[in-house]
Every structure is written in structure tokens, then in C-alpha cells.
Amino acid sequence: MQKTEIALMPALKIRIAHGTITAMGPGKADLLRAIESTGSISGAAKAMKMSYRRAWQLVDAMNACYRLPLVETAMGGTNGGGAKVTDFGFHILKCYEELVRKSELAAAAELKQLMDFAV
């Protein structure tokens, strides 16, 4: 039987630590994007196949790591509830995405060397 080759794309997974808490990482960046697209934490959690409780924990952790909130929430009621990514949250997300992009460019040659020997 011939082994099927799967092209593996090397990727860095960068997490920004704030003490023992991850202030930003790939999952939290995805959550911010999902909150923006759905307008709520529960909608984002569903879209990401994540529990509502876990999504809230991640939002709470992000907000605790910065001087300004990345996500603001509104209580339900006649106008409905919801959540939105703040301007500051978009700024942090953009900075994180740029950090990842620059890191991947800087590490491209080494990542290729590592993948040349991958099984």
C-alpha cells in the first residue's frame, strides 16, 4: 500500500502571555472576529462550536489583560442584548495579526527546513 502524501503547511501559533493568562492567541483572535460577525458572544460560541461559558471565559480573560475592554456587552431586553468588539479590541486584533504575519515571514526559511524533514 502506498502512503498518501499530505502537504503540511507550517504555521506559527503565537500566544501573548500576560502573567499566567493568555492575553491574545489564535483562538481569541478567532473569537473576536466571530463576535464581530454575529453581534453576540452566544452567536460567536455557536459559530465556533464552543460552549457559551467557555466563550465568556475567554472574553473575560482578554478584557482583564488590557486597560480598556476588547469586547463590550449589552444586557438583553426590549432592544435585545449583544456584544461588540471595541475600537481598542480591533486595534489589538490588528496588532496581533500583524505580529503573526511578520513572524511567519521572518521564520519562513526555518519553517521550510523543519517541514523538509516532517513525516
Explain the overall architecture.
- The structure is a single chain.
- By secondary structure, the protein is of the alpha+beta class.
- It has helices at residues 26-38, 41-47, 52-65, 87-106, 108-116, and strands spanning 16-18, 21-24, 71-74, 82-85.
- The protein has a two-stranded antiparallel sheet.
- The radius of gyration is 18 Å and the shape is elongated.
Offer a concise description of the structure.
The protein is of the alpha+beta class and 119 residues long. The chain is built from five helices and four strands.
Helix and strand succession? Answer: EEHHHEEHH
Kindly report the average pLDDT value.
Answer: 90
Low-confidence parts, pLDDT < 50 over ≥5 residues? none
Structural class: alpha+beta
End-to-end CA span: 17 Å
Count every beta strand, where a strand is a DSSP E run of 2 or more residues: 4
Shape: elongated
The helical percent reads: 40-55%
Radius of gyration: 18 Å
What percent strand?
A: 5-15%
Largest sheet: 2 strands, antiparallel
Number of helices: 5
The order of strands across the largest sheet is 1-2
Chain-wise SSE layout:
Blueprint: E1 16-18, E2 21-24, H1 26-38, H2 41-47, H3 52-65, E3 71-74, E4 82-85, H4 87-106, H5 108-116
Helix pairs in contact: 1-2, 2-3
What labels describe this entry?
alpha+beta, elongated, 5 helices, single chain
